Amino acid sequence: MSDRRITALLAIMAVLASGCALPETREASPMASAVTFQDPWARAADSGMTAVFGTLANAGDRDVRLVGGESPAAGLVEIHEIATDHGASVMRPKQGGIGIAADGTHELVPGGDHLMLMDLRQPLRPGTDVAVTLTFEDGSTLPVTAQVRDFAGGNEEYSPSGHKHG
User: Residue 41: left (phi > 0), alpha (psi -120 to 50), or beta?
Assistant: First the structure.
């Protein structure tokens, strides 16, 4: 085979190979990169447990799921909800975490979904801040700082005994 034919054959093979290449795959960005926690705040507490509230906003083009968290101020961080059980409001862990729709928001509010800081390691005083790291379904994390506030609330009792609200 002549050099010209080999060169032409190699050129044709290169063109065919580039036309048959698989499309570039783009990895999905971490869930946490699309989420902001707007106006986060925590209820002041001397000991035991307390709650963190605010608005989770997902600016991404896919749904995300918050599944947990951690804080140096607490031994444990859980996602909780208030549900009705036999006519009484009961606080309990929220199974499956919190889904936040693409381009949507989810409110964490007293008497509704919230983050529980359990086994507080120190008192949380009004006017101070508490660090919390949110964990999403894909393992990505979002560090946030919540302002600690006095809040009497709607008779919620964030204490280890019973998890009941009245």
Answer: beta
Cα-flanking dihedrals φ and ψ of residue 4, to 5°?
Answer: -65, -40
Enter the tokens of residue 106: 């989810």
More confident residue, 18 or 109: 109
pTM: 0.77
Of 117, 119, 109, 111, the residue nearest 69 (C-alpha): 117
CA Rg, the chain, in Å?
25
- pLDDT for 152: 76
Q: What burial class does residue 163 get, using C-beta atoms within 10 Å of its C-beta: 0-12 exposed, 13-18 middle, 19+ buried? A: middle
Phi, psi dihedrals of residue 113, rounded to the nearest 5°: -65, 145
- Count of C-beta atoms within a 10 Å radius of residue 117: 29
> Residue 141: in which H helix or E strand, if any?
strand 141-149
pLDDT at 7 over 70: no
CA dihedral 152, 156, 157, 162 (to 10 degrees): 180
